[in-house]
Amino acid sequence: MWVLAPAAFAGKLLSVFSLPLSSLWRSLVLLFCWLRATFWLPGTKTTKKQLVPREPTKTKEEEEDPPLPTTPTSVNYHFTRQCNYKCGFCFHTAKTSFVLPLEEAKRGLLLLKEAGMEKINFSGGEPFIHDRGEYLGKLVKFCKAELQLPSVSIVSNGSLIREKWFQNYGEYLDILAISCDSFDEQVNVVIGRGQGKKNHVENLQKLRTWCRDYRVAFKINSVINRFNVEEDMTEQIKALNPVRWKVFQCLLIEGENTGEDALREAERFVISDEEFERFLERHKEVSCLVPESNQKMKDSYLILDEYMRFLNCRKGRKDPSKSILDVGVEEAIKFSGFDEKMFLKRGGKYIWSKADLKLDW
């Protein structure tokens, strides 16, 4: 068709000029219409549809589903800030005396269980200080007997625990962690773990025996700081034989143990990363040792305060979310700053039920 078009055009042009002048203009108009029909290519007509800008192609990341909400697998509930010790490096200090009513605390724990919580750890302050441990015991029993959580644990300085508590509530407790930073009683006094005539180390031995008698897994937590960093605790730890020995590097938290609004001044307790590594090297033969440097510790815990607010430590201080009692777990946990990858990397998920530990009682 396109090969014959020039010849056809020439013929048309000659025929136009052979016409009288009166018909010339009408014939030129007809010729123009023929040219337009002949040479206007199909598909070249611009339509409104073609002028509409196309949506940008979505990237692979945009095509993926939105991230799933964080699951509160393991939660640390600091239901009280009150304590009978004055540890100089404490990073959860007695800034309030508030404690939730028991039924409200239970409601919050149920919300956490429904959101996927498997392990609850009760801490403080000193958790045994409120109502002589009865409040704590009722929460422990509720979590194990009614919520049927795989793991219920406590972190305590141990000074207020009585054998009767084990008799009433020991069966519902999986792990009791006792804070002990030194096996030299004078060092404990300097740190702030001294309390009159009571000997912290002797009390630790008694608690170890009660844990064995009432079938509660025994754990030790130690904060490595300026006053114990050169100590060798290998022999004592092996003798006590805890299921885990958590070794923390002393950590500064703005508003808690450092800064204008802080109740402690922990700067004098701080050690370097190199000093912490030397302490770990000295105790490398202790198989139950679980180290936590500042980097591992800071964002790898889900912490609930006394109002059941998640505490975000990403900026070096504790910024609270709204309470789970007011907005629910899924909404509140968005502001927790929780680093789940670091939680797993530091060994946050382990065999934490005494039924699975298969201990030789």
UniProtKB/TrEMBL annotation:
InterPro entries: Aldolase_TIM, Elp3/MiaA/NifB-like_rSAM, RSAD2, RSAD2/Viperin_antiviral, rSAM, rSAM_sf
Cellular location(s): Endoplasmic reticulum membrane; Lipid droplet
One MF annotation (Gene Ontology) recorded for this entry: metal ion binding
Cellular component, GO, one term: fibrillar center
Biological processes per GO annotation: CD4-positive, alpha-beta T cell differentiation; defense response to virus; innate immune response; negative regulation of protein secretion; negative regulation of viral genome replication; positive regulation of T-helper 2 cell cytokine production; positive regulation of toll-like receptor 7 signaling pathway; positive regulation of toll-like receptor 9 signaling pathway
PANTHER family, per database record: RADICAL S-ADENOSYL METHIONINE DOMAIN-CONTAINING PROTEIN 2, S-ADENOSYLMETHIONINE-DEPENDENT NUCLEOTIDE DEHYDRATASE RSAD2
Name of the protein in question: S-adenosylmethionine-dependent nucleotide dehydratase RSAD2
